[in-house]
Amino acid sequence: MCGITGIYNVDEDNFVNSSVLEEMCREIKHRGPDDRGIYCEKNIGLGIQRLSIIDLNTGNQPIHNESKTLWSVFNGEIYNY
Fold this sequence. Notes:
By secondary structure, this protein is of the alpha+beta class. The protein has one helix and five strands. The chain has a three-stranded antiparallel sheet, with helices on one face. Strands 4-5 form a two-stranded antiparallel sheet.
């Protein structure tokens, strides 16, 4: 199962430091040693340690919509995309 982490600072002026997310992901590397993904934007940060069991090489995360206004990390599969 993948390892997921994140930070949300209520104070919008308190930006997330990507090195903190990197450290959080290092702590959960055992949950997914195959890939690491980080996304930081202002006061929000997402991180994932990916375990690819039956996954494509293109399954890297975080994923986003076409306009890059929505970002997500998750443990699961997308069907009928």
